[in-house]
Automatic annotation (TrEMBL):
<keyword id="KW-0732">Signal</keyword>
<dbReference type="Pfam" id="PF01476">
    <property type="entry name" value="LysM"/>
</dbReference>
<protein>
    <submittedName>
        <fullName>LysM domain-containing protein</fullName>
    </submittedName>
</protein>
<dbReference type="InterPro" id="IPR052196">
    <property type="entry name" value="Bact_Kbp"/>
</dbReference>
<dbReference type="InterPro" id="IPR036779">
    <property type="entry name" value="LysM_dom_sf"/>
</dbReference>
<feature type="signal peptide">
    <location>
        <begin position="1"/>
        <end position="27"/>
    </location>
</feature>
<dbReference type="InterPro" id="IPR018392">
    <property type="entry name" value="LysM"/>
</dbReference>
<feature type="domain" description="LysM">
    <location>
        <begin position="39"/>
        <end position="88"/>
    </location>
</feature>
Amino acid sequence: MKNFSTAVVSLAFAAASASFLSPAAFAAQKCEFKADAPDSHKVVRGDTLWDISGKFLQHPWCWPQVWGLNRDQIKNPHWIYPGQIVYFDRATGRLSLGRPVGSTSGADGSVRLSPQARIEGVGQDAVPAIPSGVIEPFLSQPLIVTTAELAGTPRIVATPEGRVNLGKGDKAYVLGELNGATSFQAFRPGKPLIDPDTRKVIGYEAAYLGTLKLNQAGKAANEAHSFTVVTSKEEMGVGDRLLAVQPTPLLNYVPHEPETPVSARIVSVYGGVTHAGQNQIVSINRGARDGIDIGSVLELYRNGGVVKDRTDSRSAIKLPDEKYGALFVFRVFDNISYALIMQVTDTVQIGDFAKSPQ
């Protein structure tokens, strides 16, 4: 276990203040504070970085610019905990983190921070970037499988006594390369995900079935591995595939713009529907290869379409694309990503655009 000191966090943010953007730079990037922004906000349990950002800023994704964070700090941010206070200095247009519970002020007005050891370990009680309960099942379960992954995954080839379905505690016999892993998730390939731009298959939605643990690895190329079903969400059987269990990431990434401009399309809405609203999950046709990383924020647009000019029947008019919401990317594959719908004024539809903030 590691110890955590509030002084470390506050000093880290103070050190970052040297790289704050100027007011002119804020205006250029549309990182504007709300006219009714509070002077301070005490962080409470249940807050998210997105919530806190939205109390002060017109656009919550401007958080890194306000703090002056560089790319490394965005990818590995310092923790913010309940009880700490975010202050808004209106004169400089800056936010600062300080005066956590237990701090005192010196005679010169400086803030003296009292280190607080947290035996629970760093990050366990920290404020998350977005509502963690909504996305937790999507962080570890193989809900999207690429074509390359599908081709190389181990598969269940036989069951004891010819049993059709397997449940918790049952044995399963598997063929395929395990690459040294011993814990696996079972999944069933679902419908292909079609890129709206290229019309090519970029992945498959996978139905998560449960987990299996290796009992004994096969000793020859044609000898099956012996597994036991540890958990069963749905019944599994011959033909179902396996992926090695990956560590569940601790998601506390700062909301930020993609490093390079991105223009993506909505590929699917989780659950097999065509429309979605706030706090629902969608997939987009851009991933790590396109500069998307965890925490990337994209703005949602609906194509304005083309209509007839009602004042001149011989011509047509292209209506402007309408911005109506924002997405927060929380899981990234090579060419596709999962994102949470953060805020919208309209329903999200398959085919809508998701672009870098403008």
